[in-house]
Amino acid sequence: MNDEIAFASITSLAKKLSEGDLSPARLVEMFVERIHRLNDTSKAFISFDLDTALERAGRIDNQPRKALFSIPYACKDLFDVRGQKTTAGSGVLHDNIAAADAVTIERMNGAGGIFLGKNNLHEFAYGATGENSLYGTPPNPYDSSRLAGGSSSGSVAAVGYGLCAAALGTDTGGSVRAPAALCGLVGFKPTYGRISTEGVIPYSWTLDHVGTITRSAEDASILFEILADSFQPTGADTVQRLDGLRVGIPETFFYQKADAEILDCIDRLMTFLKDSGARLTRVPMPSMEFTRTVSLTVQMPEALSYHNRYLELRGDLYSQEFRAGLALGQCLLAEQYVRAKRFIETYRRDTDTVFKDVDLLLTPATPAIAPKIGSVEVTTDGYTEPAGNAITRYTSFFNMTGHPAITFPCGMHSEGLPIAAQLIGRHYEDESLISIAADIESAYAFSLPNPKLD
Amino acid sequence: MKKLQKQTLIGIRDQLASYDWKDEELIELVDPKLGIITGFQELLDQLDILRRIDLGTIPPASNIAPLTDE
């Protein structure tokens, strides 16, 4: 399979399919061959259903083209697919067969998507490094000694290694956006609640978002149109362009303790935006001092509440790491949980106030490039923190506020790894946000090279 | 606020309708040896600071309302 197809966007594959340059069967065969060849290296898939995919692709050759034509996709192994195991990357669910498709899977298949398989992840999405002792740790396609990042590690590896055209993931603290950023892909999470989480194993109901991993913002737009609930609030179709766009640059937190090359890269993007007619303004943000505490205080009791159903009978099948997190959830007080949720409400309101003066916010996607596999801590600009905290440092706040956010590549680090930016939009202005990212993508003079895979 | 003691957590487990965590898992929260969970005491200290902030009538976060024409 040539790289032109393996690393092509949905848009360009759809063009080839619609013009008859490629048949759905041939396209799926190519990805199937690639999965067989590269899954041991990439550790991207926990399970696949390639015979069904081939059979389905063979049948749709002469059927009317739908929105997704016959684009092969995958999903994090938290999404239910009827008749298949949903393991959540854990031994706890080794025999968990789904009775029905998740709403998002139903929509992808209904739009003509060809489901290939279930992706590896950090067990139950608890962790941002994507390490998994049972199914292996997906490496970064640009450097196999480094992490792909997580928790949607297998989903970014699947797209990053050219094993599918797009993937679905979940994002509770950045688990779609941050690993996509580390692997040179586009990660998008919508406004809280705009894509259904029904049929997806929860981690934290307050913070969970279903998101997409694609090669371009244009592809993210195609998937969002398929996946979003049909409700279209006022203003959602107001598409803005770069000229006159008001871009907020957070005064604090998001540009601090970061890799100098990443900051330089975002600086170049700012110059491009200014040259394109955008107005950049420094904006004050809510205090970030306690945001990780607030997030954890909500996450762990919610995770424990869900996992109570398995702990009694299958408690020993959890990793030691996740059990420790759940034990922490048991030892927090109810009032602390409620108070944390009230702080989240203040974060939402304060961030909404910021959006009165700007159309969107621009930050680096991550403060550091992909850490080495096995790293416990990462030191950036003299600041040392756990690797997982570094990966999600700039993304997790927007899971609390529920604002839509997208990360996209905008440069290469001297270490040979991608650098990405993050744009955050107003609630329910997801369409405009993705559209602006697509405008930047098409106008900005940067093209990410494909990874060199052995 | 006093430093958290393992006996407190064991009491929660034994007396407050909790899952039956192993002793070593609870001890790890107050005296981390494995490096799996660190900073629980720091988290509690931060929660104590947050407890002192008056949030007025702010309710807990729930669903996000769609935009309206108003």
Q: Can you give a write-up of this model?
A:
The complex is a heterodimer of chains A (454) and B (70). By secondary structure, chain A is an alpha/beta fold. Helices cover 38% and strands 17% of the residues of chain A. Chain A has 15 helices and 15 strands. Chain A has an 11-stranded mixed beta sheet, with helices on both faces. A two-stranded antiparallel sheet of chain A has the order 4-5. The longest helix of chain A is centred in the middle third of the chain and has 24 residues, at 291-314. Chain B is mainly α. Chain B contains 3 helices and no strands. Chain B is elongated, with a radius of gyration of 18 Å. Chain B starts with 5 loop residues before the first helix and ends in a 19-residue tail after the last helix. Chains A and B meet through helix 10, helix 11 and helix 12 of A and helix 1, helix 2 and helix 3 of B.
Mean residue pLDDT of chain A? 94
Please name the two chains that share the biggest interface, counting residues whose Cβ lies under 8 Å from a Cβ on the partner chain.
A-B, 50 and 33 residues
> What's the SSE pattern of chain B?
HHH
Helix content of chain A: 25-40%
Query: Kindly state the mean pLDDT of chain B as a whole number?
Result: 88
Globular, elongated, flat, extended or rod-shaped: what is the shape of chain A?
Answer: globular
Secondary structural class of chain A:
alpha/beta
Strand segment tally of chain A: 15
Helical content of chain B stands at 40-55%
**Beta-strand content of chain A:** 15-25%
Output the strand order for the largest sheet of chain A: 1-3-2-6-8-7-14-15-11-9-10
Describe the sheet with the most strands of chain A. Answer: 11 strands, mixed
Poorly predicted segments of chain A: 233-239
Number of helical segments with 4 or more residues of chain A: 15
